[in-house]
Amino acid sequence: MTKKVSKFQNYLLAGILTVIPLWITWLVFSFVITQLSQLGEPWVKALARGLQSSYPAISDILLHPWLQPSMAVIITLLALCTLGWITSRVIGKRFVNLFDRIMNRIPFVKKIYGSTKMLLDVLSQEKKEFDRVVLIAFPNRSMRAVGFVTRIITDKNTNEQLAAVYVPTTPNPTSGYLELVPVGQLINTDMTVEEAMTFIISGGAVGRSDIRFDNSPNSQSAVESITKSSQQAGSGAVD
After folding, report:
1. Segment (H or E) for 205
2. Do the domain assignments include residue 39?
3. Looking at the domain assignment, is residue 188 inside a domain?
4. In the chain, fewer beta carbons within 10 Å around the N or the C end?
5. Across the chain, what does the average pLDDT equal?
6. Is the dihedral of CA 115, 120, 121, 126 positive or negative?
């Protein structure tokens, strides 16, 4: 009886471990589709009303329960693509800059909007001459956390170079910690931003099988490269 109970528990655990990734994937997918559908629903209804007088049959089809959500998602995706195309043009960039200035003048909103926008800008930048993915001693010296170097600043008292490192949380990388770490204590990695994000979101289940846990003597040149490249990239920023 004990062996049967043990086997049942093992099978149950195996089934749960199999279902959880599928369940989480479905939750994320369902959430995204629901949000896209809700955004596009008013446009579908407006289109149906516009066609009601001339094409009543088409209007009724658009409002059918199984077609309306699909049309709403399609319209939302097309709207996002159109918005992306507009913002990539000169006039669109000027409009975005104007909108940013307006948002940055609204109390409290500017903190959330500005911080989120800057973080997404940093994470979406193409890889430069240095690897932005590093390991730092966090939350204590015997442990390591994956982080992204966002800029290099200078200690007023000692002139020591400090790296601003964003450490995302698992499985939601949009929240995390900002740590100031001496550049000499950064542990350089050869992971790309995409590999690091996958590693973080999956809780370490997906990623490389080997990693540098401590600094090695030949990693000093990589640290110097991070410092130099970061200073060049942020030379226009205000300290």
Report:
1. none
2. no
3. yes
4. N
5. 77
6. positive
pLDDT digits (tens, 9 = 90+) for 4-31: 767 777 777 777 777 777 777 777 778 8
Task: Please count the structural domains in the chain.
Answer: 1
Cα 141 to chain centroid, rounded: 27
What is the spatial distance between Cα 64 and Cα 62, in angstroms, rounded to a whole number?
Answer: 6
Structural domain harbouring 159:
133-233
pLDDT band at 129 (very low <50, low <70, confident <90, very high): very low
Q: Report the C-alpha gap between 232 and 152 in whole angstroms.
A: 10
CA dist 41 → 55, 63, 80, 84, 200 (Å):
19, 10, 15, 21, 34
Q: Locate the DSSP E strands across 86-207.
A: 133-137, 144-154, 161-168, 176-182, 187-188
Tell which residue, 151, 146, 93, has the closest CA to residue 119: 151
Q: What letter would DSSP give residue 238? A: -
Is residue 207 a part of any domain in this protein? yes
Quick check: is 113 in a domain? no
CA–CA separation, 34 and 88 (whole Å): 27
Q: Which residues contact 223 (CB under 8 A, 6 or more apart)?
A: 183, 184, 186, 188, 215
Separation between Cα atoms, residue 154 and residue 143, nearest integer Å:
25
Most confident of the following: 38-52, 63-77, 136-150, 201-215: 136-150
The strand pair at 144-154 and 187-188 is best described as: unpaired
Q: How far apart are CA 63 and CA 46, in angstroms?
A: 10
Q: Angle at Cα 119 formed by Cα 118 and Cα 122, nearest 5°? A: 85
